[in-house]
């Protein structure tokens, strides 16, 4: 098979492995003797709600999930609200407040099923009292452009939220809470998936304040005071309100990479999963990956060719230019520069939710002649990278990968196909 169709098949298999209709039915809790309430947030939450409705053997008494605009799926008993991502809006704020109202006053015999997936942090933006939505929006923009890791970003979010960091589960007490989660974070840490609305949090306000200072994020005095005083402290391990909480990972980046590896093997190409939790600046990760691919191509070490090098995780981009961003296309453009047209190395990098950065583009393809074609189109690859405009580069070549909403999210997917000597 030609490199590009093979890479695309691997990406599609990775996405399919995390489809809610495939993974939700295998993780259903037992029905309660009381009410069943379904709530949730994330880019996959509407599809998760539909899958849950189709598989649930009992009644659903009430339901509300919030998803990204364009990611709605029709449901019968669960209301779907659409809101903004990655910078939150009033619709997400109102939905979060309604969820807290919906779970108030439940009994021990009741069940709350919480459907969580990537994007939930932005889609549940309910700030602490005294902090405005506009201030949360400004903070989100600054954090997203700062180069902070997703774990650092979510630590700050948790400590300025009225619903994250275990607060949603605490509000459900004394009902039983079962969280069904699709992981989009390196290491699958529940506290980082949608900023952990249903799990206890070991991090503190002091940790969040240190992150704010480390990245030079400007905050109003009263927001800084909320962190400095401990007003925004999250729910900690041992809190009795979380004793009935049950957390189940239904899809993960590792499982997605394994699905892609099976596709490669079916075409006689050995697949090697390097890691499902790679973090760091996208362009620096690209340099390391290029060095590995060149070693494989030139010396057959540590793997013989043909082979594909698979990885997941969530890289970051420190935005300094005026381009359209996207960590996966930034990775690919930096990879292409590092490979410098080496023959026999092709790559795909994309976000499994179909959105890389703030563009409705999942990612792109890189071929050995991509840089040459860029020059022929009047694009200087290094200048384009400095401007953080990977999307502009690959779109001009016709090499963007556009999927539309995938209704799931297991984070970044990277595949480097090495077919022979450079």
Automatic annotation (TrEMBL):
Gene3D superfamilies: Glycerate kinase, MOFRL-like N-terminal domain (3.40.50.10180), MOFRL domain (3.40.1480.10)
InterPro entries according to UniProt: GK-like_C_sf, GK_N_sf, MOFRL, MOFRL_assoc_dom, MOFRL_protein
Every MOFRL domain range: 307-412
Occurrences of domain MOFRL-associated (ranges): 7-227
Highest taxon listed in the record's lineage: Bacteria
Coiled coil: none
Protein name as it appears in the record: Hydroxypyruvate reductase
Native species: Geoanaerobacter pelophilus
